[in-house]
Amino acid sequence: MDMKQAAMQRHSVRAYKDRPISAQAKAALEGRIAEINAKSGLHIQLVTDEPKAFDGFMAHYGKFSGVKNYIAMIGRADKDLQEKCGYYGEDLVLFAQTLGLNTCWVALTYRKITSAYSLERGEKLVLVIAIGYGAAQGAAHKNRPRTEVVSAPLNAPAWFEEGVDGALLAPTAMNQQKFRFIYNADGTVTARAGAGFYAKTDLGIAKYHFELFAGKQNFEWKQP
Ligand SMILES: Cc1cc2nc3c(=O)[nH]c(=O)nc-3n(C[C@H](O)[C@H](O)[C@H](O)COP(=O)(O)O)c2cc1C
Predict the structure, then answer these.
(1) Fewer CB atoms near the end CB (10 Å): N or C, the chain?
(2) Is the Cβ atom of 105 under 6 angstroms away from ligand 1?
(3) Residue 82 lies in a domain
(4) Measured in angstroms, how far is the CA atom of residue 210 from the centroid of ligand 1?
C-alpha cells in the first residue's frame, strides 16, 4: 500500500484490539518519527502500553476503547506549531496505515499523562494520535460541497482538482473542513485555514493531503 492508497483507506478508528504494536511496526514508526523530528524541530514521541490517557470519562464519552498507544505531538510553542503538527502528524497517520495500523487524531477526548512523555523547556503537547490495530476500519466522512473549499477558475489544471479531492479525504477536527484552496493566476496555490477549533492543525493535515495528490513537483505554495 502506498501513501495515496493509505489516504483513501484511512478513517478514524476509536475502538482497538488488545494487541501490542508489532516490534517491526514499532521500529518503523520510531525511525520515521526520528527523521521528522530531525527535519522539523518537533519533539514527537511514540507512547506505548500506556492505557491511562484513554481510560477516563472523556475517552469513554468520546467512544474510545482499548487505546494503549498514542503519538504525542510535541514542539516548541511558536506560531507555526499547530500547522506543523498537522502536516507531520498526518505523514505518520498515513505511514501507520501502510503498516496495517489504524489511528485517530485526538485533541480533546483524552487525559494528559505527563509521566508518559517528556517536555523540554518551552515545549508544549498540542494533541495526540491514538494508534493500534482497529477492531474495524472506520467509515468515510461526509464532505462539504466543493464550492465551499475551493476558489479556482473553471480551467484550473487537473492536478489542482486532484489535490482538492485528496484534501477532502483528510481528517479534520469535528469533520469541520474549514480549509480553502485557492488557485492563483500565476499557477501557485494558497491554502487558508478557516476560523475554528484546531483549524490550523487541520490546515497542516489538508496541505499534506493536497501535496500528496496534486504532486509537489506541479506547484508552489503562496502564503495567504
Ligand atoms: C485536529 C483534530 C482533532 C480531533 N480531535 C478529536 C477528539 O478530541 N475526539 C475524537 O473522537 N475525534 C477527534 N478527531 C477526529 C475527527 O472527529 C475525524 O477526523 C473527523 O470526524 C473525520 O472523520 P475521519 O477521520 O474518519 O475521516 C480529531 C481530528 C482532528 C484532525
Answers:
(1) C
(2) yes
(3) yes
(4) 18
14, 117: one domain? yes
Taking only the tens place, the pLDDT of each residue in 13-43 is 999 999 999 999 999 999 999 999 999 999 9
**Domain end: 68, 99, 132, which one?**
132
Of 6, 190, 213, 195, nearest to 96 (Cα)?
Answer: 6
pLDDT at 192 over 90: yes
- Ligand 1: centre distance to CA 109 (Å): 10
Tell me, using a 6 A CB cutoff, whether residue 106 lines ligand 1. yes
Our answer on whether the CB atom of 205 is closer than 6 Å to any ligand 1 atom is yes
Of the residues 60, 174, 203, 208, which should be mutated to test ligand 1's pocket, given the most ligand atoms within 8 Å of the CB?
Answer: 174
Is residue 136 helix, strand or coil? coil
Q: Indicate whether residue 104 lines ligand 1 (CB < 6 A).
A: yes
Tell me how far the alpha carbon of residue 73 lies from the centroid of ligand 1, in angstroms.
15
Q: Is residue 204 part of a domain?
A: yes
| Cα gap 192→174, rounded to integer Å | 18
Q: What is the pLDDT of residues 86-130, one digit of tens each?
A: 999 999 999 999 999 999 999 999 999 999 999 999 999 999 999
Q: Are residues 95 and 185 in the same domain?
A: no
Is 138 a member of any domain? no
Co-location of 13 and 116 in the same domain: yes
Question: What is residue 109's predicted lDDT score, i.e. its pLDDT?
Answer: 94
What is the CA(41)–ligand 1 centre distance, in A?
25
pTM of the model: 0.98
Q: Cell numbers of 111, please?
A: 487525559
Helices (H), 146-214: 158-168, 199-214
| Closest Cα to atom 12 of ligand 1 | 106
* Amino acid, res. 169: L
**Whole-angstrom Cα distance, residue 218 to residue 214?**
7
